[in-house]
UniProtKB/TrEMBL annotation:
Gene Ontology molecular function: acyltransferase activity, transferring groups other than amino-acyl groups
Keyword Acyltransferase: yes
Database matches in Pfam families: Acetyltransf_1
Name the record gives this protein: Acetyltransferase (GNAT) family protein
């Protein structure tokens, strides 16, 4: 049975040194699949991914490398992700963290090729990156890797214009902002004030209120984001963007209190969710409506978003392209930083 290994070693900077290592590995029935050169203060580290032949042990690989004068730094099993070039791997990890912030630790682990990444304080030989601790037993982290990981964290934590002011058609002022756990009571109040029709259109069931245990997931979905519309101390609208598991596609849903419907709130909420979707790399938003309910299609049109529909499983499937066209009248304006 063949096994794929990842080796990292220091090699003297002389012509043909790396070529001799690869020849030695080939003589040991190993196929070199990938090569990376990592700058370090003393020069460079060479990292190769090899598929070893039947019966070739890790010790055999280490001996083959050392026989050409290399200092073996570490060896570990490799998988298919190690065959992706470094920029592509980092971009994929960044997308994972941006799409689902709960996966930031996993994204860091992939970028660092770490054994584990957890929250805590680092011990000797471990790397501290903000609140994260990275551990790797097979090789020490290089400064290049740590800089790359910190850049990923900077990207995920980069400030965004997450709060936006909104003036409705009749001049009422609202704020659109990310939902949080502290909004549970306000969101419960929103549902209590909605009519049975509004609740049925949103949840496709005859419930009058949402169970308390739902509120946390509504405000902190594990695979998405939630935006609330607030007027005074009341939440009057709620929108969600949830990753469906299909690449480039997310599910979108809206709930607007009856008294605030047909005043531009839904369009502004959908526009904000589409902006988040574009930032996360989604190319399609999907919503499921009752066959007779076309309000979301009108809302998308008002937000400047193209939408198509089709019947599927007894419901109306609305497909929305999150790329917006220019609107004659802007729906929202960013809240100045100093007023947040």
């Amino acid at each position: 049975m063949t096994t794929t290994w990842r080796l990292r070693f220091e090699l003297s900077d002389s012509p043909g040194a790396l070529a001799r290592v690869t020849v030695r590995l080939a003589a040991s029935d190993c196929n070199v699949l990938a090569l990376h050169v990592i700058p370090v203060p003393r020069g460079v580290l060479d990292e190769i991914v090899v598929r070893a032949g039947v019966g070739v042990l890790p010790a055999d690989l280490i001996e083959a490398v050392r026989s050409e004068g290399a200092k073996c730094v570490g060896i570990t099993r490799a998988d298919i992700r190690d065959l992706v070039d470094e920029p592509t791997a980092v971009l994929r990890a960044a997308r994972l963290a941006l799409t689902d912030p709960d996966q930031t630790g996993e994204a860091l682990r992939q970028v660092l090729a770490a054994d584990s990444v957890t929250v805590g304080e680092a011990a000797d030989g471990q790397a501290q990156l903000g609140e994260w601790v990275a551990r790797r037993g097979w090789a020490r982290f290089t400064q290049v890797e740590l800089t790359r990981a910190q850049a990923l964290l900077d990207l995920v934590d980069a400030p965004a214009p997450s709060m936006r002011a909104l003036l409705t058609d009749d001049g009422a002022a609202l704020v659109l902002r990310p939902g949080s756990a502290s909004d549970e009571d306000a969101v419960a109040g929103l549902h209590a004030r909605c009519s049975m029709r509004t609740m049925f259109n949103r949840y496709h069931s005859g419930m009058r209120t949402v169970p308390r245990r739902w509120l946390h997931r509504l405000l902190s979905p594990p695979r998405g984001t939630t935006i609330v519309g607030q007027c005074g101390d009341q939440v009057v609208a709620l929108g969600q963007l949830i990753h469906t598991g299909t690449p480039d596609c997310a599910e979108v849903s809206l709930l607007v209190e009856d008294a605030w419907q047909r005043r531009g709130v839904g369009a502004a909420l959908l526009d904000a969710l589409a902006s988040d979707a574009r930032a996360a790399g989604y190319s399609e938003l999907v919503a499921w409506c009752l066959p007779s309910e076309t309000a979301l299609v009108r809302t998308a049109a008002r937000a400047g978003l193209a939408a198509t529909t089709r019947r599927e499983d007894g419901l109306l499937r609305v497909s929305i392209t999150p790329r917006a066209r220019a609107l004659k009248t802007p729906i929202t304006t960013d809240v100045p930083e100093k007023t947040r």
